[in-house]
């Protein structure tokens, strides 16, 4: 499915008049004028503009007649020709100078890579956000838009379906990157008090798909079996990157106020996900699944901590009511986004959050259904045997 999102960029100028055209007519027809780009609208800076969501948003804003100018900030130059590029590490204090004359900053320079060193990832994410929230008001920027995740609400058995934007943020730092996102949320709340007149909006997408998103939740669908923890009640809600960019544009244009949650309408039950994906489940007791996942992560065999499992066990569906009241609507359904996700991950093989190479995948595939459980159950069995051996000594 493709989103149509407003007028295309003006056609490039410089068209050559065919030879002899003026001689062929007594009165030359007026030359075709290129539509002038309107001068109204904000000047917008996007950090992390060279890839992922940042690249897609930069292209979208550069094509919009409601945006006066787009400043693209990243450590490398991206492909958008309609933006003015500033090559800069977002943690550099020189950022303030680059933001002179900017009205709105959208900060998307975040590292949420599963394979990143956790300490380095946190240092980049937190320091980068601190720098943006300090540089923006120093440069006269009046609005900063941050993007975290609906994961900050926490995945809990007593969560309402759906959660409102104002629901308490009950997540803990036990899942990949969630600790960083919670700290970003705290910085966002504190910034307007420190810098009066600065407006900070936080946008929280559901499970993000598209734009190269690679998370523990997208890798869940790369497994030969879908791990289901016994007695849990998953509820799956997705967010296509195109819908996220549309929501970010709403925030940039100040069509909506307050923190925003964004995702497809409604959600899918686990049984629906299994039916749509054609992937059968593998059900494990909670103690086995969580205990083994924790041990695997602790010894460095998998990038995903046990906390990631909670987001496949309990609901964290959001309503997106503020965006809906402002007139925004998702272009994608949960079913459609799941279909695109399955196409994106086709051919990839993941066990317990660890992506396998071709040789490993062949071995896991040959093991059939057992291939998906080896990492979890095998580790649990080894740990149990080691404990028994210690007790005998």
Explained architecture:
Strand 4 (104-107), helix 3 and strand 5 form a beta-alpha-beta unit. The model is unreliable at 1-34, 358-375 and 377-387 (pLDDT under 50). The chain is of the alpha/beta class and 393 residues long. It is built from twelve helices and 15 strands. It has a seven-stranded parallel beta sheet, with helices on both faces. Helix content is 34%, strand content 14%. The radius of gyration is 24 Å and the shape is globular.
Descriptive keywords:
Epimerase_deHydtase; two-stranded parallel ribbon; 393 residues; Lipid_A_modif_metabolic_enz; alpha/beta; disordered N terminus; transmembrane; SDR family oxidoreductase; membrane
Mean pLDDT: 85
Radius of gyration: 24 Å
Uncertain residue segments? 1-34, 358-375, 377-387
Shape: globular
Number-wise, the strands total: 15
> Which class best fits the helix and strand makeup?
alpha/beta
User: Helicity range of the residues?
Assistant: 25-40%
Q: Largest beta sheet: what is the strand line-up?
A: 3-2-1-4-5-6-11
- Helical segment tally? 12
Transmembrane segments: 363-383
InterPro entries: Epimerase_deHydtase, Lipid_A_modif_metabolic_enz, NAD(P)-bd_dom_sf
Protein name: SDR family oxidoreductase
Organism: Streptomyces albidoflavus
